[in-house]
Amino acid sequence: xxxxHRLLLRFLHDxxxxxxxxxxxxxxxxAPGDCSRVCGRDIAAIEGAHMVVETDRGQKYIPFHRVLxxxxxxEVVWEREGFEP
Length: 85
Prior knowledge:
Blueprint: H1 4-13, E1 22-27, E2 35-39, E3 43-46, E4 50-55, E5 58-63, E6 67-72, E7 75-79
Antiparallel strand pairs: 1-2, 1-6, 3-4, 4-5, 6-7
């Protein structure tokens, strides 16, 4: 099974994909429904165990174990097993 980390790296480095068309839904305690969504253009880096997201308050580090869903052009391409929106 492909992981969210590997899939995001593929979208980032494969010229066949537009990384700005990627969206990631992740656990974000305190946000409405404890979930947030970030677009590919706001992902500054994909590193070993986390991704770095640019926010209006600066950079935020999101561990991959908090990723719930990855979308490409609004189509779900990966979803954590057992996740129900």
